[in-house]
Amino acid sequence: GAVVSQHPSWVICKSGTSVKIECRSLDFQATTMFWYRQFPKQSLMLMATSNEGSKATYEQGVEKDKFLINHASLTLSTLTVTSAHPEDSSFYICSARGAGGEQETQYFGPGTRLLVL
Amino acid sequence: GQNIDQPTEMTATEGAIVQINCTYQTSGFNGLFWYQQHAGEAPTFLSYNVLDGLEEKGRFSSFLSRSKGYSYLLLKELQMKDSASYLCAVMDSNYQLIWGAGTKLIIKP
């Protein structure tokens, strides 16, 4: 299957700082990337969908000014958690879908664990 | 509303067979996915069904009945490494994935 990478794997930061997470599709062009958040023992929660070159579409309840998403190229999307607070501590996972159409499989990155102190 | 139902937890014995069921009610249907997620890791893709019937991939098989809004994931010759959560997800008419809460599968020796 397709390979999606995320960096960093782990982030520990102080409250009030901003954290950037990168998501890259390594062997295919990802026209659409998705950002999810998962709290312990809970299901995946979609935060936003981003298409290359356009603004991200945020799910209800997700603050777009707090979670900045940039999908600048067909292989890279970034999520910036601005002014992070302890309640933002979570497992952030990106997934990418290829250009073959909307029914293409989503492939997940390995996830980024964020701990805000 | 849109709804995906799957059991919260199942237990099975190493070497045995287990079937994880998933029922769904969504606005439209563009396919059903099964993902495996080990604790602390991101999901990995297992299967995709869009037509009725059984798709077999090694020890794993996935079945779909669109008329019944029903799918199952069948795992044969269970191994300890199969202990994980199994996520059912349906792609709706807007091509959005609707996720089930996952089934935690516990394998006992």
What does this molecule look like?
The complex is a heterodimer of chains A (about 120) and B (about 110). Chain A has about 120 residues and is mainly beta. In chain A, about 0% of the residues lie in helices and about 55% in strands. Chain A is built from no helices and eleven strands. In chain A, strands 2, 4, 5, 6, 9, 10 and 11 form a seven-stranded mixed sheet that branches. Chain A has a four-stranded antiparallel sheet with strand order 1-3-8-7, with no helix packed on it. In chain A, a hairpin with a 2-residue loop joins β7 and β8. The radius of gyration of chain A is 13 Å and the shape is globular. Chain B has about 110 residues and is an all-beta fold. Helix content of chain B is about 0%, strand content about 55%. Chain B is built from no helices and eleven strands. In chain B, the strands form two sheets. In chain B, strands 2, 4, 5, 9, 10 and 11 form a six-stranded mixed sheet that branches. Chain B has a five-stranded antiparallel sheet with strand order 1-3-8-7-6, with no helix packed on it. In chain B, β6 and β7 form a beta hairpin. Chains A and B meet through β10 of A and β5 of B.
Ordered list of secondary-structure elements with their pairings:
The complex is a heterodimer of chains A (117) and B (109).
Chain A: E1 4-7, E2 10-13, E3 19-25, E4 30-38, E5 45-51, E6 57-58, E7 67-73, E8 76-81, E9 90-98, E10 106-108, E11 112-116
Chain B: E1 3-5, E2 9-13, E3 18-25, E4 32-37, E5 44-49, E6 53-57, E7 60-65, E8 70-75, E9 84-91, E10 97-99, E11 103-108
Parallel strand pairs in B: 2-11
Antiparallel strand pairs in B: 1-3, 3-8, 4-5, 4-9, 6-7, 7-8, 9-10, 9-11
